[in-house]
Amino acid sequence: MEKTSQPPRGKTTSKKIFWAVFPHACFILSLVIYAFLGALMFSHIEGTREVTVSEEYRTFLQNLTDLTRKLSDNVTENDKVFKDDIRELFNTADPVWFINPEERWSFFGSLFFCCTVFTTVGYGNTYPVTRIGKYLCMLYALFGIPLMFLVLTDMGDILATVLSKSYNEFRKLQSKVLASKLCSGSTCSKRNELKSRAQSKIVTNEPLTIMEVLRSQSGMKQRPVKYCNVELFEKLIASENKNTQPARNKSMERWSSCPELAREKPVSRVIENFDKIGKEIEKLDVPIVLMVLVIFVYISCAAAILPNWEKNMDFQEAFYFCFITLTTIGFGDTKLEHPKFFLFFSLYIMIGMEIVFIAFKLGQDRLIVLYKKVISFCAEKNMPSKKIYPK
């Protein structure tokens, strides 16, 4: 029988790594392509729109001119009244009047807008103005938000696995340190001797002889002879079959008859990886205090770097901005002067949103456990007590 040539181990390992990474790479690549296509679409639609001077804009300029003339004619006028008039006038102004579409809706500006759409941050300082731009924005968000959540869930599994393994290794190390402190020299030596003796004993599964089986059946003498003989012969047959029949290797049988059956299709592995999305987050069980500490350190690192190119921010303002971004609140009260630099932080934003998502999931689980305890406690209190009647 001819043997089929097997591929080298290095190639097999690389293929396994490729098919393991393939689903995650597909999700991230599809999100990047989706963001770039959206940036091209919105930069073309919103960036090339015609700027028309509306009647409201003309009225705004006329009122502003009247206020400035009034201030120059009467210098002794109350400043508070002038400030109130200016504030009321600018509240009626549309921010679109002061925006150059080509600058705001450049490729990087449009890419930043797309990221704020499918991450559900929505700062509010950049938004579509044209009617077709608004319709396309709704359609873009309709498909982009589920894709973003799928990427977050998939990468969250990786992050949850890393956090779980790190936490378990830390607990093992902590238990070893505590055990070494509590263990004295004499007791440790005795325990080590006992372990070495136990490990030195090798158990071999040899075929039982008839005499050994008869010796082990000392408890059967009290039973009827008929049942003793039946059990004795059943055990003899079972031990004989166990030691005489070789175990069949189904994979070897498949390989010898048809080698293609022994090879697992890589497509099935990829499908299994798709089916396992979100399972690691469900199994994660780490203290919520640890997750809060991780979020604080993670945001603090970005808050220390961000003021280097955003000069209008200090550490506290940058910390507030990163928290509002990662929690997808996005008030828009803190604006970025260089949003294209912040796009390089896109990976940071995705990982940060995953960390916050995991923390929210852990907090949700803790709240559910708390509610269950409270409800069960209230139910036990309201249960009528059983009356014991005398006999």
UniProtKB/TrEMBL annotation:
Topology of this chain in the membrane: Multi-pass membrane protein
Location relative to the cell: Membrane
Keyword Membrane recorded: yes
Chain ranges passing through the membrane: 21-42, 105-123, 135-153, 286-306, 342-363
Biological processes per GO annotation: stabilization of membrane potential
Key word Membrane present: yes
Alphabetical list of InterPro entries matching this protein: 2pore_dom_K_chnl, K_chnl_dom
Domain Potassium channel: 96-159, 294-364
Gene Ontology cellular-component terms listed: plasma membrane
Primary localization: membrane
GO molecular function: outward rectifier potassium channel activity; potassium ion leak channel activity
Keywords, sorted A to Z: Ion channel, Ion transport, Membrane, Potassium, Transmembrane, Transmembrane helix, Transport
Entry similarity comment: Belongs to the two pore domain potassium channel (TC 1.A.1.8) family.
UniProt-listed PANTHER family: POTASSIUM CHANNEL SUBFAMILY K MEMBER 18 (PTHR11003:SF346), POTASSIUM CHANNEL, SUBFAMILY K (PTHR11003)
Identification of the protein by name: KCNKI protein
